[in-house]
Amino acid sequence: MASDITGGVQAMETEAARVLDEAKAKASDILQSARNESKKMSSTELPLDDVKAECVKIVEEANSKAAAETKAAAKQAKDIKSGASGKVDHYAKMMASIVVGEKAA
After folding, report:
1. CA distance 60 to 55
2. Are 103 and 97 in contact, with CB atoms under 8 Å apart?
3. Can you tell me the distance from the alpha carbon of 97 to that of 88, in angstroms, rounded to the nearest whole number?
4. CA 27/CA 79 separation, integer angstroms
5. Is the whole model's pTM more than 0.85, yes or no?
């Protein structure tokens, strides 16, 4: 009876050792696979085409907006100069008429 128990325990120990060795081998395979995948991923270039295209689009939009604002500012400056020129002429005529006595201040 004792030998049956001893034989059973030894069989379980042998089976446990076999299962443990299989688990270690499988874990080693998984780690090696993960290392290989990691190396593959780190050596691959990231696809930056979409990012570069978006960057070009943003720069083009910014340049277009800047050109439009510059054009609007130039027009506004021209209008201000034009309006100021007319006012200067008006005030000069007014002061001249006051000086010669045609009109009272």
Report:
1. 9
2. yes
3. 14
4. 79
5. no
Asked if 98 and 104 touch (Cβ cutoff 8 Å), the reply is yes
C-beta separation of 91 from 98 below 8 A = no
Angstrom distance (rounded) from CA 89 to CA 80: 14
69 in helix, strand or coil? helix
Which two three-digit tokens encode residue 27? 């874990």
Parse the chain into domains and list their residue ranges.
1-44, 46-105
**pLDDT one-digit tens code per residue, 28-45:** 999 999 999 988 888 877
- CA distance linking residue 20 with residue 11, whole number of Å: 14
Q: What is the DSSP letter of 101?
A: T
DSSP3 helix / strand / coil % (the chain, rounded to 5):
90, 0, 10
Residue 104 confidence class, pLDDT cut points 50, 70, 90: low
